[in-house]
Amino acid sequence: MKNFVINLDRHPEKFENFVKRNADCGIAFERFPATNGLDLTDQEVMAMRLVAPGSQFTRGAVGGAASLWRILNWIAAQNEPALVFEDDCTIRHDIIARLENLLPTLGNWDLLVLGYNTDSVLDLELAQGMKSMMVFRPAHPDDRSDAAFQSANSQVAALRLNTCFGPAGNLISPAGATRLLELCYPMDNRPVQIEALGNRMLPTTGLDGMGNSVYRFMQAYACFAPLVVPRNNNATSTTYTHDARVWGQQGVTR
C-alpha cells in the first residue's frame, strides 16, 4: 500500500529519525516533501482554496493543510488508499497484521485514524447513543513509553470517530479523500463544540477543528488501542507557530 511520510525539506533529520524509530514495522516508508507555509503567497493559498477569505490561520497550519491537500488529490486521482504519517510519530510493530484484520470488518469506510495526540481527549461511539470519552497517560510520550508501545500486542478495534486531536497516522480511502476535500477545504474559523471537554466551543485554528466538525458526516473510524502515537512536542512542531494572519485580504495581519 502506498504511504506518505510528511516531512519538510529543511528538517531531513526528522525523516531519518522516523525511519530508524519505526524500522521494525515492515513498511517501506516513502518521504513526502511537505509544503512550507512560509513560502505560500496569499494568491497561491486562495487559488488552491486552502483557506476561506477573511479566515485567520498561521502559516504552519496552512502549510500542513496544503501538504494534506496534495496527498488527498493524489489518493482521489489514483483511486488507491494510502497511509499518511507525520514525521514525529511512533508506530506499533504489528501495524500491518492489525490492519489486515481490521479493514475487512469496516465495509465502506472513508478514514481510519491510526493514532492521535495523547495530551487531549478522544471521543468514540460504542453503539448508537453510547459513547466513550477518554484521556491518556502519559500525556506526552517519551523514549521509554514509545518502546513499550511499539512492542505492545493489545487488541485493536476500529470504532466510529466523533472527536480526536492531532491525527498523526491515517489510512484514507479514495472516497474518503474526496469527502475530506469537499468538507475540510477551504478551512475557516468555524466554532466546534467538543462534548468531551464539557461542551466547550473551540475556534478552528487548523485541520483538527475542520476534522472534528465533519467526522459525523463521514464513515470515519479511529483505532483503539492506537497503532500510532505522536510526540506532539510544540517546541519542535513546524505547524504550531505564532504567525497567525488573515488570508484573502492582502496586507491585513493580526
CATH C-level class is Alpha Beta
Would you count the extended β strands for me? Answer: 15
- The number of distinct structural domains comes to 1
Task: Tell me what the CATH architecture is.
Answer: Alpha-Beta Complex
Instruction: Give the class from helix and strand content and strand pairing.
Output: alpha+beta
Element-level helix/strand string: EHEHEHEEHEEEHEEHEEHEEE
Q: Would you give the CATH topology?
A: Spore Coat Polysaccharide Biosynthesis Protein SpsA, Chain A
**Based on CA inertia axes, which overall geometry fits?**
globular
Helix content: 25-40%
Number of helices: 7
What is the average per-residue confidence, as pLDDT, rounded to a whole number? 94
User: Order of strands side by side in the largest beta sheet?
Assistant: 2-1-4-10-6-13-9-7-8
Largest beta-sheet details: 9 strands, mixed
InterPro entries: Glyco_trans_25
Organism: Bradyrhizobium manausense
Domain Glycosyl transferase family: 2-187
Pfam families: Glyco_transf_25
Provide an overview of this structure.
This protein is an alpha+beta fold and 254 residues long. It has one domain: Spore Coat Polysaccharide Biosynthesis Protein SpsA, Chain A, CATH 3.90.550. The protein has helices at residues 12-21, 42-47, 59-78, 95-102, 143-150, 174-184, 207-214, and strands spanning 2-7, 31-33, 56-57, 82-86, 89-91, 111-115, 122-127, 130-134, 157-163, 169-172, 191-194, 200-203, 220-224, 228-230, 245-246. It has a nine-stranded mixed sheet, sandwiched between helices. A hairpin with a 2-residue loop joins strand 7 and strand 8. Helix 3 (59-78) packs antiparallel against helix 6 (174-184). It is globular. The mean pLDDT is 94.
